[in-house]
Automatic annotation (TrEMBL):
<feature type="region of interest" description="Disordered">
    <location>
        <begin position="1"/>
        <end position="21"/>
    </location>
</feature>
<keyword id="KW-0614">Plasmid</keyword>
<protein>
    <recommendedName>
        <fullName>Toxin-antitoxin system HicB family antitoxin</fullName>
    </recommendedName>
</protein>
<feature type="compositionally biased region" description="Basic and acidic residues">
    <location>
        <begin position="1"/>
        <end position="14"/>
    </location>
</feature>
Amino acid sequence: MTDPNDADKTAEGRGKKRRRTHIYGDRRTVSLRMEPALHERMMELCDELATPANTYVIGLIEADLKKRRR
């Protein structure tokens, strides 16, 4: 959930669900759970880098796979 205001709304209160299948249809979703303090630190860094969190995490995974030559 990227919008903190969504947490206060019911499913009915959010309105029509936005679909992005035409943009992200070839991608897969991964759910990542982390401690609130870690999430806050990551978001602060992403803000400093002006990088979306998704891009940051993907970069970490790609760098690790490259390091492991996979």
